[in-house]
Amino acid sequence: MSKMWQISVPGSTANLGPGFDSIGLGLSLYLKLTVSVQEYWEIIHLDDNGPKEFELEEHLLYVIAKKIADQFGKQLPACRVEMASELPLARGLGSSAAVIVAGIELANQVCELGLSVQDKLNLSSQIEGHPDNATASVLGGLTISSMNENGIVDTFHVNDIDAAFVVFVPDVELKTSESRSVLPEQFERTYAVHASANANMLAAALMARDFKRAGRYMEADLFHEPFRAKLIPNYTEIHKEAKANGAFGTALSGAGPTLISIVPTTIADDFVKAMKNKFPDHQIILTKADEHGIQVK
């Protein structure tokens, strides 16, 4: 058995507007782990995108790996784990989902579980509570998913998303729990039908790679963005300037506070320059859809 593994997990954006808790997109921003078996546990963060101080038993990676090992009746061996992440915490770029997927894969490798891709989709989505970020981190590309009452995930997976994505990351955290607290408990039927139709059109446009139409529906969400907008720095201004500079559309990335624009690849570099001038307090990152999902070497 190999005693060292390199695990790479893409971050993700979820919802893309009205695709609430079901649409995800793997991004070329990564969590990377170097794992080796040793006599005692070490988790070493190589950057600031991880907790500075923690108890091992409370670290999400360890919690997930131990949970999966226990679930399959295996003893999780002690490991040295070096973690490097391009995913800022609590910003809506799937940082927790990436760690969950990484923890499942760590247990899969060191305990020789032989998990299938479907197993990884089910386990990660069950732990997350919904399949949007989790499926995108497992598979990469665009995922449109549903999870039934038994925790079984069904996913449409589409690669070759030939568009650029630009994320606007503010210097503030927003916990998903806080962002969910502002959402209504229920909607009237006619409102829900309209919101659902917008989500259907978004999914269809993305699968057809009609990015102009997808951008329009990204900005037509009724499920969550109207209620979360007040929590997001420069929400209205970024939408306006992104559109004026050629973006197809802009939406919250997951629960926020990061915003994400879908942009024609031909104007991506100029778009980023213009946005950096307009919003110097944001970290503005040009990225693209990841094509591979989780990778192990």
TrEMBL record:
Domain GHMP kinase C-terminal stretches: 203-280
Primary location recorded for the protein, binned into one broad class: cytoplasm
Source domain of life: Bacteria
InterPro entries assigned: GHMP_kinase_C_dom, GHMP_kinase_C_sf, GHMP_kinase_N_dom, GHMP_knse_ATP-bd_CS, Homoserine_kinase, Ribosomal_Su5_D2-typ_SF, Ribsml_uS5_D2-typ_fold_subgr
Domain GHMP kinase N-terminal: 60-141
Pathway: Amino-acid biosynthesis; L-threonine biosynthesis; L-threonine from L-aspartate: step 4/5
Residues that hold ATP according to the record: P88, L89, A90, R91, G92, L93, G94, S95, S96, A97, A98
SUPFAM superfamilies cross-referenced by the UniProt entry: GHMP Kinase, C-terminal domain, Ribosomal protein S5 domain 2-like
Subcellular location: Cytoplasm
GO terms, biological process: threonine biosynthetic process
Listed EC numbers: 2.7.1.39
This protein's GO CC annotations: cytoplasm
Keyword tags: Amino-acid biosynthesis, ATP-binding, Cytoplasm, Kinase, Nucleotide-binding, Threonine biosynthesis, Transferase
Enzyme class label: transferase
Catalytic activity: L-homoserine + ATP = O-phospho-L-homoserine + ADP + H(+)
GO-annotated molecular function: ATP binding; homoserine kinase activity
Family membership noted in the UniProt record: Belongs to the GHMP kinase family. Homoserine kinase subfamily.
Functional description taken from the UniProt entry: Catalyzes the ATP-dependent phosphorylation of L-homoserine to L-homoserine phosphate.
HAMAP family: Homoser_kinase
Protein name: Homoserine kinase
Organism annotation: Lysinibacillus pakistanensis
Species lineage: Bacteria, Bacillati, Bacillota, Bacilli, Bacillales
